[in-house]
Amino acid sequence: MLLLRPALVLLSAAIGSAAAAQTLDPTDSAALGAAAHQATSNIVNLYSTQLAAGKASQGGFDQSAVSWFASGIIWSQVFGNSYVTKDHSMDNVAGTAISAATYGTTADLLGGALKTVNEKLYGRWNDDMGWWAIGMLSAVDAYGKDALIPGGGKFLDVAALTFNEMYEQWDTQCGGGIYWSRDRSPTQKDADYKSTISNSQFVEMGARLAMLTANQTYLDMAAQAYNWIKSSGVMTAQWVVTDGVHTASCGTVNPTALGYNQGVMLSAMAYMYKATKLQSYLDDAKALVNAAVPVYAPNNIVTEPLCPVGACGRETPMGKPQFVKGLSDVYTVATDAAVKSTIQTVIDTTLASALKNCDANWWCSQDWTNVRAPAQSDPYDQYGTTELLVAAARVHGATAPAGTSAGNLGTAPAGGSSSAATAPGGSSAPASTGAAAKKSSAISISTGGAVSILGSIALGVVAAGLANLV
Ligand SMILES: *[C@@H]1O[C@H](CO)[C@@H](O)[C@H](O)[C@H]1NC(C)=O
After folding, report:
1. For residue 78, what are the domain limits?
2. Residue 365 — very low, low, confident or very high, per pLDDT cuts 50/70/90?
3. N or C: which end of the chain has fewer CB within 10 A?
4. Does residue 2 sit within a domain?
5. Where is the region Disordered (predicted)?
6. Is residue 355 part of a domain?
7. In a domain, 6, yes or no
8. Closest Cα to residue 143, out of 432, 428, 413, 417?
C-alpha cells in the first residue's frame, strides 16, 4: 500500500550543491547496462548495509523508513534488470530477501499457519503481496520455472500460492473484484474497498502464471478480473484507471487516478496479450497509452500529477516508476509503430531529464523534472531511476557489465549465464511489473520490535484537495 499523507512535511531538501549530471546514450547497450548495474547496486548495497546492521526485516529495508511493499517493488526491479540485461550479480541478495519474506521453507508470504495473525499484525494487504509476487515471477523469467528461492520454495510456486491467496479475497459484491485489505472487519479502514491495483496485479500475475505453467485456469481467472475492471467502471470508458470502488457504493468509483494505476494496468494488458494473442488487449493498451501519456507525461517527462515530489508522503516516489514500467511492458509486445514511438519518446525524454539528477556514482533523485540532488541513503529516492533504466533497457536492449552474468541463485539462469539481452525485453516476457503505491493504514515494526500503527489518509482524500485530473 502506498501511504499517502498531506504535504505537511516536504522531503528533506537536497543538501549541498547540485550533483554533476550524468549523460547516457540509451542506444549504447553497454553504457545502459552499466548504468542500470551501478544504480541498482547502490540500492541493493543500502539494503545489505541495513541487513548487516540488523535493521532490515522480513526481507524488507528498515521498515521504520521504508514500507514492506516498497521493498517487494525494489526486488522486482532487481530481477527485472537481471532478466533484461542478464546482470545476475544482485540476485542472491534479492532472492535471500524474498526467502525472508516468505518464511524460508514455509514458502508463503503469509507465513503458513501464521496467516491470520500475520495478515493483521503486519498489514499484509493484497496489493502488498502482489508486488512481491510479481518480483518472484521476474525471478522465474530470469532463472526458469524450477528456480528456488534460497533456502525456500520455488519462486513459481510461491507466486502461484500468492495468486490463489489473493483470489480468496474475491467475492461478488459489485459484481466481482478482489478487496484491497485482507481484513473484512468493520473496524478495518477501507475494509469494503476493492482497489483497482489489487485487481490489475492479479491480471498480470494470472497471465504470467498461465504462460509459465500452461494452466488455463490462471488465464481464465485473470480474464475474469480484467472483465470486472471494465464492467465495474474502475477503468472508465474514457480509459481512465481510477483507484477503486467501495462495495457500499458499487456504482460510484473513487475517481482518483494515479499514474501507477495506469502503469500496472498497462502491464496487465501487455501480459494478457502475450498470453492470449488476442488483439483486443493490444487495442486496449493502445487506447490507454494514448489517454494516459498526455496526463502523466506532459512534455514526455513522466510525473505523478496528483503527487509531485514530497506531496503524498514518503511513498510518493514508488508510484511514478510504475507508469514507466507499464509503458515498457507494452513496448515489448506492441505491433503498432505509433504506440511504440510514443512510448520510446516518453522513456527517452524522461531518462534524459532524470539524468541531470544522477551523480557520478549513479546516485539519483526521485525528481525527474527539476534539479534536485540525490539523497544517498534513501532507497525511495534512488528506486525510480533504477526502474527507468530497466525500462529503457526493455526498449533499447542493454548489456550487463563483464563479470555480472554468472547466476548466483544456485540455479543456472534461464538462457545461459553469459549472453546479453540485446533484444528489447529479452526473449520471453515483458519485464516485470510492479506497481503501485498504496495508501491506507499500515503497521510497521520499529527496529526495537514495537508495533506502531501508522495513521492513514486515503489517497482520495489527499487528492481531493489537489488538482483535478482528467
Ligand atoms: C491450475 O491452477 C488452478 C488455480 O490455481 C489450480 O486450482 C489447479 O489445480 C491447477 N491445475 C493443475 C493441473 O495444476
Report:
1. 11-467
2. very high
3. C
4. no
5. 402-432
6. yes
7. no
8. 413
